[in-house]
Amino acid sequence: MTGPIHAALSIRGIEKDFGPIRAVAGVSLDIPHGQICGLTGPNGSGKSTLFDCTTGLQAPTSGQVFAGGLNITGWEMHRIVRDARVIRSFQKTVVFRAMTVEENLVLAGQMVGFPGVPATFGIGPRSRERTRRLRTQAGALLELVGLSHMRHVRAGQTSFGQQKLLQFASMLMPEPKVILLDEPMAGVNPVLIERMMENVRAANRESGITFVVVEHNLDALQALCDRLVVLSRGQVIADGVPAEVVRNPQVVEAYLAG
Amino acid sequence: MLMDVAINGITAGSVYGLVAVGMALIFGVLRAINFAHGEYYMLGTFASWWGIETLAFPYALSIPAAVVVVAAIAFAVGLLVMKRLIDAPFQVGVVATLGVSLVLQNLVIMIFGGTYKMFEGGWIEPVEIGETFVSKQRIMIVLAALLIFGGLDLMVRLTRFGKTVRAVSQNFEACTVVGVDVPRVVVGTFVLGCALAALSGVLTAPVVVSLYGGMGTAITVKTFAIIVMGGVGSTTGTLLAAWLLGLTESIVASYLGLQYRDAVAFTALIGVLTFLPGGLFSRRERF
Amino acid sequence: MDGALDNRLRLGGFVLLLVALLFAPLVAGPYELHALVVSLTFLLPALGLNLILGYAGMLSFAQIAFFGIGAYTSALMAMHWGTPFWLNLCAGGLMAGAVAVPLGVPALRLRSYSFVMCTLGFAVIAQTVSKNWVSVTRGDLGLSGVPRPRIALWSGGYEVSGPVPYYYLALFIAVLAVLLFAALVTSAAGRYFVAIRENETLAASVGTPTWLYRIIAFALSAVFAGVGGSFYVHYYTVISPTIFEPYYANTLLIIVLGGGIGTIGGVVVGSFLFVALSELLRVAPDIRMIAYGVMLVVIVFACPEGLLPLMLRRLTRRTQRPYVSGSP
Questions:
Q1: pLDDT at res. A257
Q2: CA of A176: which chain C residue's CA is closest?
């Protein structure tokens, strides 16, 4: 078993209580660099809560999270994003609707392109150059996801599918190490699902980004992931090769019962 | 002397409490702060004053008359403005009710002039209590507050309207699904809240004596301070917080100076918001 | 493309306006110039309000308090130490910003409605302080006989007096403020402000230190207001606690909301439209407030983005298209 220092993301004994309700009942996972790991489970299994505890949206009741050796437990979300390069997506609110597609991307890359507060105010050298570099990077990513023609359109005026693609491109801007996707296939048509999966594979292949995908769509997870983890009632009940995990009798029972 | 301070404090607190419970009701169903709330208090005083000065009403008659007039105004505002605030972002509510307060305040100034009006009327004959004299009006105010608070508490718990108001306060979307006429409940609650403010105004007018169009502004912020201190959804808490504010103001006014009286509420507000976000009595909803 | 035409219209409009303003003293008399100066003065705190409300998404009633703080600071410096104008201006802005930080740190942790009330409370406290700290502010009497602006590096220099020199000074400061504001909102920090306004959680998820930037936005808007207040006191040469009256705060709100929230041109237009026009027409304050009140209600329901964006949309005849073709 890989220790915290070697894993891209290491979850150790995470528990999360909401008053009397125990949403996550002791989960430990090590996700090695470069893996595409799926995380699934029936409704109420605690996968969303686990997700939130790992990415700083909520603080776990107990347990620890490490990212590339850094102890990120209890860190605020923006610090996890900046210092550990662990980026997460959201299921419903996906982009900044008032900004253009390009501005969304430039914004997502600012933490790398404009380190430190004074730089963001234009104080210090080369701020125009920094913006130009971010714009170029944005352009390249737009090419990648096929949204170049929407560059100057307000994100709020694009379709939901396009917003999901934009969101994905945004997550690639700040040189991420780990990307956590929160139900990326929800509400998306099959053609786009295929496209998104290809984007994930390409990013994983070419930049070595580790992926954790929380999803309900078992077919997509089987096709995409190297490894599948199943949660039920706040605990891991299966963890392994997707094709085997989905046939695991415990998993079947969890889905039928829950 | 101490007795006087205490009586003044309880009286003022009762007034604030009546106004505050109105604002709390409105906040409950709309999740919006009624920035014009103090104006309905002011309108209550002016309506009563006008009834006495121009129509030669006896004070007792001016009470229900003023409440009815203000309720009518509130009804109009409720239909035109407050109804549209259902499910609106809170900043819309702030700006809209601010606009209403500007209109109401300045209409009064325009129609009646900007000078102070002297209120003549009310039961100001003093009654002896212990070593000091208290005007009957002040006793009326405290009694009225207690009665109304008790009545409201019963209403909210036992009557159908009360239950509907509670339901809308908790989840108005669910209410719409179930078939509750949310706009009607909202307007009705709004009228009730403003009527309480107006009643409070009429009862206080004999004690305050000098009325002016802008007198509602301080009331609005003090009322908000009370709601924050008392905690949302707690009638007892609101009344206790109101009395606490009234007493503190009275003490400050007597021993530090009258000019600092209005600052007490603001300081208390900032203090509570900074250190006790749940209010003094209720640990429930964080403000 | 729509965006480009829109930008060209705005830029063109600005240039035209600037030229018109530069040559205004040739056609305008002292009274008209006074109206313009007043609207240019209130442009600064309005820009501040636009920053905190339109760009960072937080409604604040404290702007007028910072305006007053800047005014009193500047007045006291000029009266007691005879410092040159640029120093007073900076001091006014910095003092306002310095006060904003300890206020903002606890206040910005609150939910929206509590924050609004807190800022309102602060405005009232500022008024109470100015009324009661008699040794410094002379209470209700206020400060009078504030020296005219002295344009110099340290000593000597040129004293501004007369409607035309004051007008050009106001114009100079206003243009500088607008340019600075434009640079600010188009910078990387400006993008962070908009992100915070749109969706704070989403902003955090792209690495925005949201709390820090909210404080910065609050402090910066205070600085704008403070500088505006400094100029105000040197123009009127008197300052009293009446500056903290809600009348002025409401004026700022109508400028921003009516003119065009979240835009630069909108606030400029709003300032001229609502302030200069009211001055020129000599509208009585209570009628003005009733008009403002009605306008606020109408605007917030019917035209929430303000007049300028509405006008621009009519001009470019842009229609809202929910989906652009070529989607997957």
A1: 65
A2: C206
Chain C positions in Cβ-Cβ contact with residue A76 (cut-off 8 Å): 204
Which tens digits make up the pLDDT trace of A160-212? 889 999 999 999 999 999 999 999 988 888 888 999 999 999 999 999 999 99
Which of C107, C118, C290 is closest, CB to CB, to B106?
A: C290
Tokens describing residue B258: 């009258």
Output the pLDDT for position A143: 92
Contacting residues of C for A127, CB less than 8 Å apart: 187-188
Inter-chain touch B96–C300, beta carbons under 8 Å: yes
Half-sphere exposure of A150 (CA within 13 A, CB side): 30
Tell me if chain C has a CB within 8 Å of the CB of B273.
yes
Q: How many pairs of residues across B and C have Cβ atoms under 8 Å apart?
A: 110
User: How many Å lie between the alpha carbon of C114 and the closest alpha carbon of chain B?
Assistant: 7
Q: Which of C206, C214, C318, C320 to mutate to test the interface with A (most CBs of A within 10 A)?
A: C206
CA A175 to centroid of chain Cα atoms: 13
Residue B250 and residue C99 in contact, taking contact as beta carbons nearer than 8 Å: no
- Average pLDDT, whole number, for chain B? 85
Cβ A174–C206 below 8 Å, yes or no? yes
Residue B282 banded pLDDT, cuts 50, 70, 90: very low
Q: Which of C188, C194, C205 sits opposite A99 (nearest CB)?
A: C194
Cβ proximity of A169 and A94 under 8 Å: no
Q: DSSP labels for C21-68?
A: HHHHHHH--HHHHHHHHHHHHHHHHHHHHIIIIIIT----S-HHHHHH
**What tokens does C212 get?**
């820090």
Q: How many residues does chain B have?
A: 287
Query: In percent, how much of chain A has pLDDT > 70?
Result: 97
Predicted confidence at residue B175, as pLDDT, reads: 82
DSSP letters spanning C113-158: HHHHHHHHHHHHHHHHHHHH-HHHH-GGG-EE-PPPPEESSSSS-E
Task: Tell me if A216 sits within 8 A of A40, measured CB to CB.
Answer: yes
B116 neighbors B212 (Cβ within 8 angstroms): yes
Q: What is the pLDDT of residue C66?
A: 96
Helix or strand or coil: residue A209?
coil
Whether C322 and chain A come into contact, CB under 8 Å, resolves to yes
What residues in chain C have per-residue pLDDT under 70?
A: 1-4, 317-328
C238 interfaces chain B, CB cutoff of 8 Å:
no
> In chain C, what is the straight-line distance between the N-terminal and C-terminal CA atoms, in Å?
22
Q: Are strands A210-214 and A36-40 parallel, antiparallel or unpaired?
A: parallel
DSSP-derived letter for residue C1 is -
| A180 in Cβ contact with A86 (< 8 Å) | yes
Residue ranges of B 76-95 with Cβ closer than 8 A to chain C = 81, 84, 90-92, 94-95
Cβ-contact A108, A173 below 8 angstroms: yes
Contacts of C112 (CB under 8 A, 6+ apart): B90, B91, C58, C59
DSSP letter assigned to residue B139: H
SS3 assignment for C170-218: HHHHHHHHHHHHHHHHCCHHHHHHHHHHHCHHHHHHCCCCHHHHHHHHH
The answer to whether the Cβ–Cβ distance between C128 and B287 falls below 8 Å is: no
Q: What are the angstrom distances between the C-alpha of C166 and each of B41, B185, C163, C264?
A: 44, 56, 5, 24
CB–CB of C74/C230 below 8 Å?
Answer: yes
| C320 touches A: beta carbon within 8 Å | yes
For residue A241, the distance in angstroms to the closest alpha carbon of chain C comes to: 30
Instruction: Return d(Cα C8, Cα C113) in angstroms, integer.
Output: 38
pTM here?
A: 0.88
C189 at interface of A, judged by CB pairs closer than 8 A = yes
C180 CB near a chain A CB, below 8 Å? no
